[in-house]
Amino acid sequence: MGFPDQIVRTVDLAHPPAKVWAAITTAEGLASWFGNTAEIDLRPGGDMRMTWNEGFAADMRVERVEEPTVFGYTWPINGLPDDDPRRTYVEFRLEPTGAGTRLTVVESGFAQLPEAAHKEAFEGNIGGWKSELGELVEYLDAA
Predict the structure, then answer these.
(1) Could you tell me the pTM of the whole model?
(2) Where is the Activator of Hsp90 ATPase homologue 1/2-like C-terminal domain (predicted)?
C-alpha cells in the first residue's frame, strides 16, 4: 500500500500578490505568521532558518524563487532525527484573482517515509498548515 505523498491547501486572500509575496518570502513576514524568528537568503540554494518559542527550529534551503508567483524550499521532516537527510519540499504558488490572490501550498515528499514516521509527519503537517495558513490570513488582514 502506498502512502499519500503530498498535502495541498488553497486559500483565497483579499490582498494583492505583492503583499502575499512579501509575507511568505521575507524574514519580517515569515516571523509575523509562520515562526517567531526567521532568516532567509532569498535565492535558490540560499539558507533559511525559522525558530518557534516552543523551542523548535528548522534549517531550510530555498529551492525555487520565481517572483511573484512561485516560492519553494525544503525542510526537515518532523519526527525524524536532526541528522536525517530526508526533507519535504514546500511550494507556494500565487495566482492573481479579481479580488486578490489565490495561494496554493503544496508540501510533498512524505511517501519516502516508513509507515509510523509517515503517519506522524503527514498528520502533523496537515494540522500545521491549517493553523499556519489561518495565521497568515490574520497577519495579512491586520497589516
Answers:
(1) 0.93
(2) 15-140
